[in-house]
Amino acid sequence: MALDANTAPMGANLTEWGATFRIWAPLAKSVSVRGTFNSRSDQTLTKSSDGYWFTYVPGVKEGDQYKFFVSGEGSTGYKRDPYARSLTFDPAFPHSNCNVTHPQSFPWHDQGFKPQPFHELVLYQLHVGGFWSTDDAGNDRRRERPGRFLDVLFKLEYLAELGINAVQLLPIQEFSTPRSLGYNGIDLFSPEMDYSVAPNAPDFQRYVDKANQLLAGFRRAPFKQGELDCQTKQLMALVDLCHLFGLAVILDVVYNHAGGDFGDEGIYFLDREVPGDNNRSLYFTDQGWAGGLVFAYWKREVCQFLIDNATFLFNEYHVDGFRFDEVTVIDRYGGWSFLQDLTDTLRFRKSEAPLIAEYWADQRSVVRARSDGGAGFDTAVASGLRQAIRGAVAQATAGRDAHVDFDSVAANLYPGLGFAWRQVQHLENQDVVRLDNTTDRQPRVAALADPSNARSWYARSRSRVANGLLLTAPGIPMVFMGQEFMEDKYWSDSPNFGGTG
Questions:
Q1: Is 356's pLDDT higher than 70?
Q2: Considering the chain, what percentage of its residues have pLDDT values greater than 70?
Q3: CA 61 centroid distance within chain
Q4: Residue 125 three-state SS
Q5: Is residue 263 within 8 Å of 237, Cβ to Cβ?
Q6: Average pLDDT along the chain
Q7: Is there a contact between 222 and 300 (Cβ–Cβ < 8 Å)?
């Protein structure tokens, strides 16, 4: 079948002899693609009746760079492809070009991997930039730069020995700054550039050697030259090796808003309705959230963009499930039917993948089936047990005669949403123990257990009880990085805040 503006996949996609290019820009007067494959001259796209533009360019190959040039009512200029799989370091952001990639060229080793069923999951939440990074001499590199996807490889044996069976990565989609929690993503199909290492970097070979050492332990073929040379393949390698160690990979994705710092070439300004009006954006409402704008859920093309993103992560990165950030916001701004379409699609694509909602209204509705009016998620992040256990630990610090409220702990051990696995239980997470959380920051468990000495016998004893309750309680337990060795310091994604990784 011949591809056209109605049938071609979105973005840039390689074919046998070249590549197709497709973008949604319904208000644009003209769209062209410029790249290294055509000496950066214009190749005009053809518009369909519903606002999609398409062309085929012969001779395009993996590694070629491109941008769209959009002439429209509200803006004219170079625009990054919203579906770009990766961005260039040179030119640097926010003027990066988009890279043409060939996902099928990555040599996966994880054939046959199956994640644990929901009721057996034990999650370990980590932030790639803050988790781990040392040099050959054992010096911590995280104050100089964020940790990288391939840095996590050096801790996979440790993670597997912990007894967890899934890692939950904080958002890894491209954001505008070198450091961030990740909840301000702007190019959702591209992995964060600062989490990768360039193939010409002095320490690149060290990462290749570590990856191949781990592969050799499983009697798998090593990575060859060029197979780890970009951020897409380095993220794939992390997922691949996690699977060999029996660890599922859950991604934290943000579909309630996008970050606010796009530059003129980002999707905020892709096809504006009015010149200079930031709030008349193609993909977004005029409602702000967490420093960005909420997506326009009444537009089927916007909903499809977000659904495409999740299925893309299934298909091209082999991820095993998702934690969806602040689904409450999506519901608040009219996205309930979008959530139903999202969960229906993902369950059809990979029924064994856990779909976890962060939802702070009636959680019964968010895990209820679509046929019963629900949003169709498998499980929801819970806070009741966390608050009850933390309350009991804090009360215990008053000494021998303290009243410790175990009634509240007992009440929150009862599964509130049906099956026990309907709730993800935790004592710490990326937000409540974050250094720069100035509204509702809470101490880490070890510091809560003995504020005067987080290494005392009391601190250790109370922490063991708290973690023991978490790991044996009904539900899916989640441990935040450092909790397993009684980290007592708040964490930060940036050394500018003075925290630890």
A1: yes
A2: 97
A3: 28
A4: strand
A5: no
A6: 94
A7: no
The fold of 11-105 is: Immunoglobulin-like (2.60.40)
| Whole-number Cα distances in Å, 121 to 99, 126, 352, 431 | 36, 16, 12, 22
Tokens 């961030």 label which residue?
180
Least confident range from 81-85, 101-105, 341-345: namely: 101-105
Residue type, 476: I
Alpha-helix residue ranges (DSSP H) falling in 325-456: 327-332, 336-349, 363-367, 384-396, 406-412, 445-449
pLDDT tens-place string over residues 396-428 = 999 989 999 999 999 999 998 999 999 999 999
Q: How far is CA 392 from the centre of its chain?
A: 33
Cβ atoms 283, 302 nearer than 8 A: yes
Q: The dihedral of CA 153, 154, 158, 159: what is its sign?
A: negative
Count of Cβ atoms closer than 10 Å to residue 229 Cβ: 18
Cα radius of gyration (the chain): 23
What tokens were used for 361?
């209204």
Report the distance separating Cα 328 and Cα 101, nearest Å: 35
Of the chain, the percentage scoring pLDDT greater than 90 comes to: 86
Token output for 285: 């409402």
> Please, which residues have CB within 8 angstroms of residue 182's CB and are 6 or more apart in sequence?
127, 170, 171, 172, 173, 175, 192, 252, 254, 493
Residues 188, 380, 132: CA angle, nearest 5 degrees: 55
Q: Which of 182, 352, 133, 162 is nearest to 247 (CA)?
A: 162
Residue 51 clears pLDDT 70, i.e. is over it: yes
The pTM of the full predicted model, rounded to 2 decimals, is 0.96
What is the residue whose two structure tokens read 């990740």?
A: 182
Look at residue 348 and tell me whether its pLDDT is greater than 80: yes
Contact 467, 478 (CB under 8 A): no
336: left (phi over 0), alpha (psi -120 to 50) or beta: alpha
Strand segments (E) across 2-160 = 11-14, 18-24, 30-35, 43-44, 46-47, 52-58, 65-71, 76-79, 98-99, 123-126
Query: What is d(CA 405, CA 455) in angstroms, rounded to the nearest whole number?
Result: 24
